[in-house]
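Quick one:
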Amino acid sequence: MTRKKITAALVGNPNSGKTTIFNNVTGGRQHVGNYPGVTVEKKEGYKNLGDKEFAIIDLPGTYSLTAYSQEEVVTRNFIVNDKPDVVIDILDASNLERNLYLAIQLLELEHPLLLALNMVDVAEDIGVKINDSKLSQCLNGTPVVRTIGVRNEGTDAMLLAAAEASDNKQSNGFKLDYGSDVEEAIKKLEPLLVALHNEIKFPVRWLALKLLENDANIKQSLAKLSNSDSVVNECDKIRIELSHKIGEDVELFVAGQRYQFVGKVYQQIADVRDAHAITTSDKIDKVLTNRLFGLPIFFGLMWVVFNLVFTIGDVPSGWIEDAFGKLGELIGSVMSDGPLKSLVVDGIIGGVGGVLTFVPGIILLFLAISILEDTGYMARAAFIMDRMMRKFGLHGKSFIPLLLGFGCSVPAIMGSRMLENPRDRMITILVSPLMSCSAKLPVYTVLIAAFFDPSVAGNVLFSIYILGIVLLMIMASIFRKTLFKGESEPFVMELPPYRVPTLKSIILHMWERSSLYLKKAGTIILAASILMWFLTNYPSEVEYSKDYDALAVQAEETYTRQVGEDVLAPLNIEDIEQNEQLTALVGEIQDANAEFDEAAAELEEDSAEYAELETAKTEKMQQFETDNPELYASAAKYVELTASLEEEKTHLENEQTGEKLEKSYSGQLGKFVEPVIQPLGFDWRVGVSLVAGVTAKEVVLSTMGTIYSLGETDENSKSLKHALAQDPNLNPLVAYSLMVFVLIYSPCLAALAVMKRETNSWKWPAFSLVYGTALAWVVTFIVYQGGKLLGFGS
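Output:
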């Protein structure tokens, strides 16, 4: 069956439920990109319904179609230039009067339009009943449908109505009467603009109105056309004359006329039972936005979120870690030794696999943020934080992009576009990287797991997040008083009613953001892991300070001689396999030792559990001796000598690997920066990881994994956290200092690239890289040296 293709553009005010409807209608059939030339996100989804195939565009939320933000310009340009078959305006029925302002502007674009009254259940709960037919009648027969987006009710009917509306390619003739003076000015302008209409596709009456409003974007577009100077000059003349006639700015007058019209329409269509009734949202707000309780509740919620991420996320992370370990062993067992095996096992699986281990924690973080957003609490959090952020030179709206920074600096920097004031935007962009993004979380969790007791792990992680927020406030205040002097814009933001989020919407939000992390793991991090493998493995020919092969042979010869003298000679045999009872006893003792090592691996040596295991092992050995009085001493000696040989060989291999790594390209790079980072407690290996981390913060971890795994080639390899814990150069103070440095220093390459695009200059990314790294050094120096003075780190 050939389906009729219909392109529908979803438009609406922020918090009107537009994106919820988009997600419910399109499900997983979505594509996310950017509009050409700007950084506004473009979301497109698809839906088949009957004999119709819908391509649905989720345009950015906007309150009007003026040119004060990229979102407004993108929305009106898309409708006019891309010509969707129908525009669907999602209206918040519980706040209809304000939402109708955008609907009037959409009607003036003379495009097929459908009005979707969303959240009608919320409107009725607060005593507002809307007369749909009357609303349609007031707007020249514009079709109206009802939806409840969170329950996905009415969306199919909305799409069918949109398909019907799309059949009518002509405007419904709606014209708002702006009064005789304005109408006269429009009539003067229209003949001048008709000739330009073919090149600039907006409706002539709408163009005339925008020129009277002195719309900068439209004037710029006209200025690019040939022979338009005379038209623009005449328009300016008419606008100035009109302004004198009406005695005020034309834009304000036109907006006032629209609001008056909307007010009259609303009075006709809305039956408000009690305008002063206290709603459920009002009651909840009395607690959550309370002047005394608001901030403690907010910080309490954040604390719960981070502890949930750390504790619950740790379980599936362990499963993934085990799976990648087994994958590495499997691939390593079927590949012959050589550079390719090392690249696949150590470079790719060890690097990228180590980063993917932390996907569960990141998904949980985004899950929590999605719930806070969809319930409506996030807007309250911005309102609560405005009181505090304004003291440090930040706008309350800055809270939202900064909160996105907990996930990734890239959307945080892009989200700063919601700030109209350029100074507010620049400050928000420069301090966004100080938030602990999801890429830093894996570094924190590994270091915390390696060096801190589980009982304080959540508190340590929480302190790092708080430190980032405190530094952000300080730097924002400094930037406001130095680079970007001036007051921030007053806080104006709509607080949506509280809602119960849908599972589908939460999962889609969570997936959108988590997938960005996965894409980075599959691209940037993979490339960086391969680069780091090369730097840590080459040059392949290294001149060692010792002959490790000869030392290994010597150890083998010593072992053979001692076994012969202490084990074989007393029993008058040449090999232990000549005595089956001895061979079996050796195996039992080795199994008992292995069981003890495995069970005691996570225990402290002074713990009661460790003592119990040790007692059980001793009793087992005594039982072996009782059962085999003549052979036990020989078997125990053989096990002891074998273990000593393995320990000596492992020591030689690790020493050789360490010397090779030290003389590799990465080692040379690490040694180059070591004098600078030594006062922070870091050695050259940490230096290599930090340099690599500029590509992406996750790479700090994968680089550590690559460096530390080089000395671990047998099947009993320790995990990265165990390797870190055993490094004598690291301790809890150094680990905490490293977390502080990773928190603050240079943004990753992707964030720097987005920063360049948002500021249209390389100057600010370069400034961010330098100031971030310098600030990281100073703060980490204070933390490390201060900690040593207080007696930590010994």
